[in-house]
Amino acid sequence: MQKKITVSGVQATGSIHIGNYVGSILNWVNMQDEYKCFFFLADLHAITIDRSSEELNSSIIKTIAIYLASGLDPHKSTIFAQSSVKEHTELAWMLNCVAPIGMLKRMTQFKDKSGKDQEAANLGLLSYPVLMAADILLYNADLVPVGDDQKQHLEFTRDLAGIVNRKFNKDVFKLPEPVIQGQGTRIMSLRDGRSKMSKSDPSDLSRINLNDDADLICQKIKKAKTDTIDTISHDREARPEISNLINIYSCMSNKTIKSIENQYLSIGFAQFKKDLSDIIIAKLGPINDRYKDLMKNQDYLLSVLQDGGSKARIVAEKTIFDVKELFGFINS
């Protein structure tokens, strides 16, 4: 039986944190044996925000190291940099030419990132969902692991695939289905339980990075915001900060939220935070060790990206050939 295809990626910006890990990468690791997987570093998406060439280059190397340290296997999955497969941008341009601007302007992420002055936003930020659609449709994905905040973009991808299919009156693209897995898909900031943990947050205390050492993890958890209520209980609306910490505890320990509440029913925040730190350190320690080893062998990291790019292009070139022919271009 042919394996279903799954496609996903994380922006190659800043440091990969536990929100990325439990919400995306850990799920990818668990999917490798069951699906045909394409996992990319979203470096083209990364430049929708102005950053130096040195910063981007460093982030790409660190991201591939984190991917591999976390358990992604280049023998099981196709792992590559988005920018190394030119067909991503080629398909994105053709999709741009059928994508309604009104739909793009309604994207929540565009509104959030462009702020009050949308006219000053760059075109890449507006057309971000079109490139994301190309990332997915290029590989005929059946399933796409996404967080809650990306569901709108996947719905747009399905809408765009439908527009193309109707334009040519045939099933050019599959309509990919979202895979939203468990409570870990939305880990919140350690400083604000109502905001998602983010690589772009200026405060490093807002997140646990996968390459943080044990002392730094302890420091960040100790300083993590809670509230003035003595008991430890989970209520996302009334108690967002402690609920977020319980959620992280659950994701890192595989314990249920209810069992964690019962365990700390009469125990204070200090012991809870110490235990949470210990659990995170135990989980991330092997990843951090492997990450440090991989960063010493950057030639190997680059070879993984090169091999993955070659494999991805075999699939991407076939899709582009077919789509260009439908649009009327001459393939040479």
In words, what does this structure look like?
The protein has 14 helices and five strands. It is globular. A three-stranded parallel beta sheet has the order 1-2-3. It is mostly helical. 53% of the residues lie in helices and 8% in strands. Helix 4 runs parallel beside helix 14 and helix 11 packs across helix 13. The longest helix has 30 residues. The protein folds into two domains: 206 residues, HUPs (Rossmann fold, 3-Layer(aba) Sandwich), CATH 3.40.50.620; 90 residues, Tyrosyl-Transfer RNA Synthetase (Orthogonal Bundle). The two termini are 34 Å apart.
- Provide the number of structural domains: 2
The CATH topology of the largest domain is what? Rossmann fold
**Regarding quaternary structure, how should these chains be classified?**
single chain
Spatially, the strands of the biggest sheet line up as: 1-2-3
Number of helices: 14
Q: Describe the global form.
A: globular
Following the backbone from N to C, one meets helices and strands in this order, namely EHEHHEHHHHHEHEHHHHH
User: How large is the share of residues in beta strands?
Assistant: 5-15%
